[in-house]
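>> received
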Amino acid sequence: MTIGQSLASFAVVAALLTVIPGLDTALVLRAAVSRGRGHAVAAALGIGAGCLAWGVAAAVGASALLVASETAYRVLTLAGAVYLVGLGAHLLWKSLRRRGDALPEAAPAPGSLWASWLTGLGTNILNPKIGVFYVATIPQFIPDGTSPLLMGIALAIVHNVIGMLWFACVIGGAGFMVRALGRSRFARVADRVTGVVLVGFGVRLALQHR
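>> returned
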C-alpha cells in the first residue's frame, strides 16, 4: 500500500465515521445556534485538536495503554462520563430556566471563544473510545517503511479536514434553521437536544465495558 492509497482508504473510513450523527455534531450545532458562528467554529477546532492529539498518541503507541490497562481505561472513561453528564445537565437546566426568557433574535449569546474551544477539546480528550478507535485503525494504514509518527499525524489531519468540511455544512444548516425558526426557539431546542445527547453519552460511557 502506497502513502496515497493509505490516505485515501483512511479518508473513506473517517468520512463514514464523521457523518454519523453523534456528540461532536450536536456540540457544533448547539454552538452555532445558541452562541453564533464564531463559537461553532471554535468548538469544531477544539474537536479537531482532540482528534489530532489522539492520532499522535496512537501513532507513537501511547493510547495503546488504554487497550492494555483496564484501570487506565476505566479512569479515563469515568472522567469523561462525569464531564459529559455535567455539561449536558448544565445545558438542560439553562434551557428550562430560560423557557420564558427569549434570546435576542439578532444577537447570539455572548461568551469566550476560548471556552467553546475547550468544550470541543474536552469532549474528545476525555473520550477513550476515540483513542481506542485510533489505536485500532491507524496502524492498519501505515505503509511499510514510513514513519509511524508522521503517518499518524497525516492520517489525523485527513480526519480533521473531513471533519471541518462536515462541520461547515452543519454550521451553514444551522444558520438556515435560525432564519427559518428564529434564534430563541431553535436555541432552546438545540440546548435540550444537545443536553440529552451529552447526558446519554455520559451515562452510556460510565456503564459500558469494553
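>> Residues 100-108 have pLDDT under 50 and may be disordered.
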